[in-house]
Design goal:
The protein is of the alpha/beta class. The chain has a single domain, classed as Spore Coat Polysaccharide Biosynthesis Protein SpsA, Chain A. It contains five helices and eight strands, in the order βαβαββαβββααβ. Strands 1, 2, 3, 4, 5, 6, 7 and 8 form an eight-stranded mixed beta sheet that branches. The radius of gyration is 15 Å and the shape is globular.
């Protein structure tokens, strides 16, 4: 499996922790081919980094894609879990996972939450071929709008859920 990670970076000080998170997860699933795409935006010129994420999407032609915002972390089992789910549900084009908030709460997953302001970009992994020309609207909640539009294109069989929290939300410093 090939996985592209997309990160618009407004907090460059988080890069070492992000990299360590990725390396640890990759150690649990070394057969996954990882490609980390990132663009710097320390002046926060692009709301939510959407323009930068779209630029990175335009360079990707294959595999799976995950948007890793610069304040989220993958858990050590993240890659192994998504690989297992893709193998178990080969028709899936969108994986949706539960997410643990830094405060300790868990954002659960179900079809109703796949809409703008209810889903975080780090909760979904999608097949690049599933989005075609669909891109992230360039506003702060654009990630959620993108996920909602993608989910509305897919059949229930093409959406798989991982109910364990395999992503840590707001795990890192979120303010400059």
């Amino acid at each position: 499996m090939k996985l592209h990670l997309l990160t618009a970076i407004t907090r460059p000080e988080n890069l070492p922790t992000l990299a360590a998170s990725i390396a640890t997860a990759h150690g649990h699933a070394p057969d996954v081919a990882l490609v980390w795409h990132w663009r710097l935006d320390p002046e926060r010129q692009h709301p939510g980094g959407q323009c930068l994420k779209n630029q990175m999407l335009d360079t990707i032609a294959d595999g799976w894609v995950w948007i890793l915002d610069d304040d989220n972390l993958m858990t050590p089992g993240f890659l192994a879990e998504i690989t297992a789910r893709i193998s178990a549900q080969p028709a899936a084009r969108l994986l949706v996972c539960a997410q643990r908030h830094n405060s300790g709460g868990i954002r659960t997953v179900n079809r109703r939450m796949l809409r703008e302001t209810h889903v975080d970009a780090a909760q979904v992994v999608f097949a690049r071929d599933a989005i075609g020309e669909l891109r992230i609207p360039e506003h702060y909640c654009g990630d959620g709008a993108f996920i909602e539009a993608l989910a509305n294109r897919l059949t229930p069989e093409q959406i798989a859920y991982i109910h364990r929290p395999i992503v840590r939300y707001n795990a890192l410093r979120s303010e400059p």
